[in-house]
Amino acid sequence: MRTFVSAVAVLIGLVLAAVAVPAMWVDRNIVQEDGFVAFTAPLGKDPVFQQRLASAAVGSLGAERIPEALSGLVTPILKSAAQSLTSMPGYPDAWTETLRRSHRLNFADPATLPAGAGAATSLTLDLAPLVGLVAKQVADATTLPLEAPDQLLITIGQPEHRQILERMSAYAPMGYAAAVGALIAFALAFVAARRRWTVLAGIGIGALVLAGAWTLAAGTVGGAVARTSSGNEVAEIFKSEFVSAASSSFAQWTMVTAVAGGVLLAAGLVLRFVGGRPNTGSIGG
Fold first, then answer.
1. Predicted confidence (pLDDT) per residue in 196-222, tens digit
2. Tell me, what DSSP letter sits at residue 253?
3. pLDDT given at position 136
């Protein structure tokens, strides 16, 4: 009976762990605003992506916002801004604010958004902070009161993708409870086992299997996301960089799991060897 209870507890722990680790990664790096900003901030340093961002920001300040009499003066400044946007002192803060606004649009309840902020129905980036940076440079150089739009939304996904994110934001935080449940199940298995080395070895083998399964699943999900098309060059570059960064980040978690599984398996085998050695003391006669 103890062996059966131990085996069931190990299986339950592995099932909970299979859900807990991906859910916690999603919650920390995508669902939580600070985690999302920290995770995606380096994407703004990619030279090609920076150039596309600058072009999109400058392009949004079209002729309708600039008096025709001043277009000859402003156009060269806009071209200069497109080339120097990412080197402006305010660029890091503007990019961070872009990420924060975008996260709120994609995850927040529309009722909690500030007045005047339109609710997005698809996955979007809001480039308004970057446009504001360009508009400020033009205003400083020409004294022209150029106003930037309150929002400049670029679609990076379809409505069904947004629905997936909404479900993720609801269920991902449960990963922490699942992790606690997995630890409790493993502890119960260890206490109930007659041969505790089998518990260590079983958890280790299970962790190695999970690491392999997560690697395959991550590759499948990343490939599916990469095959979707938004039709926008900025969005496509952001999506490509995001998928690459996500794959690299989750691979680190997978590697840690695989290493932990290998250590537990080795510990179980060592315990089996040490505990299974025959008694070499004196033999009565």
1. 899 999 999 999 999 999 999 999 988
2. H
3. 77
Which residues are 155's β-sheet partners?
124
Q: Give me Rg for the CA atoms of the chain.
A: 27
Note the pLDDT tens digit of each residue in 225-278.
777 776 667 777 777 888 888 888 999 999 999 999 999 999 999 988 887 554
Per-domain residue ranges of the chain: 2-28+172-275, 30-161
Taking the CA atoms of residue 83, residue 87, residue 91 and residue 92 in that order, the dihedral angle to the nearest 10 degrees is: 140
How far apart, in whole angstroms, are the C-alpha atoms of residue 252 and residue 269? 26
β-pairing, 153-155 with 124-126?
antiparallel
In sequence order, what are the residues at sequence separation of 6 or more whose Cβ sits closer than 8 angstroms to the Cβ of residue 185?
9, 10, 12, 13, 16
> In whole angstroms, what is the distance from residue 135 CA to residue 3 CA?
70
Measured CA distances, 234 to 50, 105, 107, 160 (Å): 9, 18, 21, 20
Residue 93 neighbours by CB distance under 10 Å: 12
C-alpha angle 269/271/276, rounded to 5°?
Answer: 95
